[in-house]
Amino acid sequence: PARSAAATAGLVRRVDLLFGPYGSGPARAAAAALVGRDAVMWNHGGAEVPRGEVGRVVDVLGPARRYWRGLAEALGGIGADPDRVVLVRGATPFGRAVSAGAERSLAEAGHRPLAVLDIDGDPEAVVARAERVGAGVVVGSGRIEDDLALGGALAGRPLAVGLVVCGIDLAAERLGDAVEGWIGPSQSDPDAVLPSYLRGIGAGYPGVQAAAAGELARRAVETADSTEPDAVWEAARAMRLSTFLGPFRVDERGRQVAHAPRIVRWIDGRRRSVWAPPG
Question: For the whole model, what pTM was predicted?
């Protein structure tokens, strides 16, 4: 994060377009470095960048609090009991936002978790605690390394599992066949037709997100007929469109309000959509 903030501060006077870093921590630091500057940052890598004393940021991703928006419906669709959920919360602003969103999603569907447990560095102990309170489903909300450790502890147990990392291919690469049947939130549709330049390089999800930001920035510059920050900021906030990542619309502060992650499930070694946001 500190390096991202320093790099952002050094770039703003020298570039026409500024794209943020990957990860919510670095993205928050970069956004804070824009305070008092007129630059616009296209945020394709941070799902938890709250608006407070930050500069002008345009969110491309669905926010962390909506990662598990369709959790209850997705669990019902795979035959899991939404009344037997234990949430395992990551110890970062991103993890806390994802977990709070999962709890809110369950509540809106008339359910509540059996427990909300914090990741404490001992995933085996966390899983044991979840089993003691009667969990039938464990839903994680940590960083990639947290979710992979939790997934390792859950492998082979008779539990339904949802992990943020299960929304990307890395889950199967690192956890193997254990992820079969597990679910996760995905910013993009795994069956979406990507532009040829992305297919040609086999772009992973960070590349897809970054390319969508590039497409949106290009459209904003074309609409504004300028790279002047004020004009780009106004154009970005007025745009209503979709890219291969999904719908795009932001509010007056640049927060994404149209896009929410879908929920995917690992079936026969592939991610398949089991819930998509309405509209």
Answer: 0.91
